[in-house]
């Protein structure tokens, strides 16, 4: 007989499912896209003199890759996502060619330089003391800060595509929002939803609306009334959603979807603020910080395109150039210049704080290394587009889109335009690249459906911006979540009701506009300007 005093061993506890990290998620996405590309037939459109696809000219071609070469493309995808170059002759992306930069090396160097600057400036405790003082002043007005930042980022996103630049602001806002009693989800949502809602509700953004208008042969101002109304509505919805969650976690910390950071020794914890005064050196460091971030925003705004509302080609990830001559005061900087800006600012802070050469270099290296996780995420996100490009299956997807929307009534066409552009935005996170591929095909189809080309542009940008809010290939999203240390699954749980609501509003608005145009016979073909120079994005 068994000894009655003997205790039966307990069964080991079941392991709960844990959502994979951002890096693992993107590896799985890359693998799924690669597998899909194996079964999709390769195809091409004929291109016009400007390099845009010609509707109705799609034809099948032999696959450009053997199975072994396809496997090689899968393995090289992260590397091409960093340093892949687009050969203008072969239209192939690899690292051993001469051509246009296709990879995300610029974004990666930029966020690493931001990490370096934050590391050096944090060592002076200037931001820590300033954050405590600001939090003490705001106290119960944190909601006002959230709303103001989101509206500002949304306005910048709507007018000039300000989105990737937001990766530099996390280090500034995370400690401030924590001092005000908010978790990291609030910070991430405030920045991501602020900027990407603006991208979705673009009004005169030359890198999305400008390119789409150029390809459609209409003015950048056509359809702006509807786009402005949608921007106001969508931004209001996003701000309200974040404020709702922020108030909830401040009232009940247990309601946080991401938990709270462990307070460091001597840290008073969330919701509290100190009263330490800034030293003269710390004030100088804050002045450099404000100057660096202010100059970053000023230097990347294409003032001539926005003020002149002129459509033209632009590629925000590669050349960041517009189709019009810049004003004399425009700097036209992009990631290489921005990276240098923050490295120079790091050196200035080190010199002002008398850190010495060794300590400054150590802090720069430590800050850059802290951004290696987000850098890996960015490189993997960039590799997905390379696979679709090199397997020549992207045109096949475009052809399917062309068939799905062709022959539809006005309202159905507008709805279908939103739906079919979602997978394209997943594969082409660049708004200008997406516009250059999709609009030459959508524009003539819109004419046949009785939908104005400006309404078609609005439907297209709604789909593109909405997809970026949830797509794991969106650098703004996955890079921001990685820096904020917010899980992709937690973010999806937070944002999915808002995304559904934004989708309903966007579809209803463009379908109503298209239906009114059909009923009044107001839709017309291209007027005003024609395409200027083709976008070298394919």
Features of the shown structure:
single chain; 538 residues; mainly alpha; three-stranded antiparallel sheet; two-stranded antiparallel ribbon; 62% helix
Percentage of residues assigned to helices: 55-70%
Poorly predicted runs: 526-538
- Strand adjacency order, main sheet: 4-3-5
Distance between the termini: 78 Å
What sort of overall outline do the alpha carbons produce when their principal axes are compared?
globular
Kindly state the mean pLDDT as a whole number?
Answer: 86
Helices and strands, in order, run as HEEHEEEHHHHHHHHHHHHHHHHHH
Structural classification: mainly alpha
Main β sheet profile: 3 strands, antiparallel
Share of residues in strands: under 5%
The number of helical segments is 20
| Gyration radius, rounded | 25 Å
Structural description of this entry:
α3 (105-123) runs antiparallel to α14 and α10 (280-300) packs antiparallel against α12. A hairpin with a 6-residue loop joins β3 and β4 (93-94). The protein is mainly α and 538 residues long. The chain starts with 21 loop residues before the first helix and ends in an 18-residue tail after the last helix. It has helices at residues 22-39, 67-83, 105-123, 126-138, 142-160, 170-179, 184-200, 209-216, 224-251, 280-300, 303-308, 335-352, 357-370, 372-390, 394-405, 410-427, 431-449, 453-468, 475-484, 488-520; strands spanning 43-44, 59-60, 85-86, 93-94, 100-101. Helices cover 62% and strands 2% of the residues.
């Amino acid at each position: 007989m068994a000894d009655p005093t003997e205790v039966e061993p307990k069964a080991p506890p079941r392991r709960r499912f844990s959502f994979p990290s951002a890096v693992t998620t993107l590896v799985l996405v890359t693998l799924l896209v690669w597998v899909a590309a194996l079964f999709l037939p390769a195809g091409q459109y004929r291109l016009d003199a400007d390099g845009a696809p010609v509707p109705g000219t799609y034809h099948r071609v032999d696959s450009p890759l053997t199975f072994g070469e396809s496997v090689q493309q899968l393995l090289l995808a992260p590397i091409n996502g960093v340093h892949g170059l687009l050969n203008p002759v072969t239209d192939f992306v690899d690292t051993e060619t001469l051509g246009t930069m296709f990879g995300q090396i610029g974004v990666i160097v930029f966020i690493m330089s931001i990490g370096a600057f934050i590391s050096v400036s944090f060592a002076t405790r200037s931001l820590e003391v300033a954050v405590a003082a600001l939090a003490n002043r705001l106290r119960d007005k944190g909601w006002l800060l959230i709303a103001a930042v989101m509206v500002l980022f949304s306005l910048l996103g709507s007018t000039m595509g300000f989105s990737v630049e937001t990766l530099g602001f996390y280090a500034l806002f995370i400690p401030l929002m924590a001092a005000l009693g908010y978790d990291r989800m609030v910070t991430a949502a405030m920045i991501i939803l602020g900027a990407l809602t603006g991208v979705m509700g673009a009004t005169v953004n030359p890198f999305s609306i400008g390119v789409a208008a150029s390809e459609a042969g209409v003015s950048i101002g056509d359809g702006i009334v509807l786009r402005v109304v949608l921007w106001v509505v969508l931004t209001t919805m996003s701000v309200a959603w974040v404020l709702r969650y922020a108030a909830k976690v401040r009232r009940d910390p247990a309601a946080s979807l991401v938990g709270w950071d462990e307070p460091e020794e001597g840290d008073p914890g969330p919701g509290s603020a100190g009263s330490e005064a800034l030293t003269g050196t710390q004030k100088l460091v804050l002045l450099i910080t404000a100057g660096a971030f202010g100059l970053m925003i000023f230097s990347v705004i294409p003032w001539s395109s926005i003020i002149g509302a002129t459509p033209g080609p632009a590629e925000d990830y590669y050349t960041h150039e517009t189709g019009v001559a810049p004003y004399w005061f425009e700097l036209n900087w992009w990631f290489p210049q921005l990276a240098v800006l923050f490295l120079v600012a790091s050196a200035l802070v080190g010199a002002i704080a008398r850190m010495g050469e060794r300590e400054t270099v150590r802090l720069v290296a430590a800050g850059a290394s802290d951004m290696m996780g987000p850098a890996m995420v960015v490189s993997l996100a960039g590799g997905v587009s390379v696979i679709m490009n090199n397997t020549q299956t992207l045109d096949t997807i475009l052809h399917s889109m062309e068939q799905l929307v062709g022959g539809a009534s006005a309202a159905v066409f507008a709805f279908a335009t939103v739906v079919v552009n979602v997978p394209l935005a997943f594969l082409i996170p660049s708004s200008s690249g997406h516009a250059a591929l999709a609009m030459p095909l959508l524009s003539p189809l819109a004419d046949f459906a009785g939908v104005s080309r400006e309404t078609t542009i609005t439907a297209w940008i709604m789909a593109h911006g909405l997809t970026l809010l949830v797509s794991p290939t969106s650098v703004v999203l996955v890079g921001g979540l990685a820096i904020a240390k917010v899980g992709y699954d937690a973010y999806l749980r937070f944002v999915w009701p808002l995304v559904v609501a934004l989708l309903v509003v966007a579809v209803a608005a463009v379908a109503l506009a298209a239906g009114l145009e059909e009923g009044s016979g107001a839709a017309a073909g291209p007027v005003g300007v024609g395409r200027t120079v083709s976008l070298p994005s394919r």
